[in-house]
């Protein structure tokens, strides 16, 4: 017995010391995760609101009424029962939905929520934590691309409001708190961390979501995500869930984006985004090798819109944009977000790589109109000159003729060498090149006959590179860069 006690006593003593140390730590030990979030939640809950909407829809209700055969014993009973209760299959009916929001200006009565929370609503009512209610006077503006809306109510007394904090300084692992109206249970508080940043969930061209494991469910949409200083650092917008409930993967629009959108909705009632006028694609491993740039960095320009700000500034297809307005372009999808947030009319520096040489050009940011294409990505999909129709790295190429233009539906403006057929086992086929495509450039040099292509391939091979970079145009006029292995 004595031996057992002597073994256990040091462990018990160590446990007691660790416990005492834990609870005697200074307050700063909990600065990133306090022992309780009750003080923070208590200050914020009154600024978070429940949003209920209603709208009238036409057509049959969700549950079909029973059909009784003519002359059946209970025909009169069913007719009387359902007619008295208004059970008409094609009658109009009102449906309602619930969401969340938060007050950003208590004196003016300004409330932020998701656009999808109020989409199609005829009436919008704001329910406050103290039980009071206010009708929304006006939707000041909405932005479908960022899924945000700004509402206006007339407060009888100043409302409790909250402020935006910076989302750019957040780090993965930082504590965050969500308050909202999940499943109609208003004032619900959940705690978690930032699980990831800059998430692209394919919901729009400017996806840049914060990911959190704080519980977010149906009804939390439009509600705030707070840091431990009580600042709004995101708007809870979406979840991934096979069950319909939280599995710890939720997404919030970062506050830096929200604040910018809200400011414009207040000023203009709409969002005015910057526009460059380029089609871009990712710098993949093989393209990076051909261009001599780090992989997965920058944005490769595949095409420039005529008369666009990019065209006027001298940007060209094949340029790799590394910085825009002194902000690093760390990925292809980062460029549209940076440009969209740039002030209209601002002269911004563009740092780029062109044929191995770094250049800095200045572009005046344009305004993205409804008729303009977003600065968006394109989906990835010693040698003698050979005679026309010869095969080069699995491609049978020919100079463009009127007959070939008609055959493949190619516009007269398209210049280059047409692909007549392709070896299905070749590297080019695996990269998505197909018959009817036109090679416009090879190794960033314009080509007009198969000999030009062969010479470029030979030049690249002698330089010791593993792939040749083609610029390819299809019958629809879409341009893209394709790096085709040659070894």
TrEMBL record:
GO CC terms in record: periplasmic space
Pfam family membership, one: PDZ_2
NCBIfam families referenced in this protein's UniProt entry, alphabetically: degP_htrA_DO
Family that this chain belongs to: Belongs to the peptidase S1C family.
The reaction(s) this protein catalyses: Acts on substrates that are at least partially unfolded. The cleavage site P1 residue is normally between a pair of hydrophobic residues, such as Val-|-Val
Signal sequence annotation: 1-29
Region entry Disordered, spans: 365-390
EC number in record: 3.4.21.107
Organism: Hyphomicrobium denitrificans (strain ATCC 51888 / DSM 1869 / NCIMB 11706 / TK 0415)
Gene Ontology BP annotations: proteolysis
Keyword set includes Signal: yes
Family annotation (InterPro entries): PDZ, PDZ_sf, Pept_S1C_Do, Peptidase_S1_PA, Peptidase_S1C
Protein name, UniProt field: Probable periplasmic serine endoprotease DegP-like
Domain called PDZ: residue spans: 265-332, 389-441
Protein keywords: Hydrolase, Periplasm, Protease, Repeat, Serine protease, Signal, Stress response
An example Gene Ontology molecular-function term: serine-type endopeptidase activity
Localization (cell): Periplasm
Binding site for substrate: 116, 147, 219-221
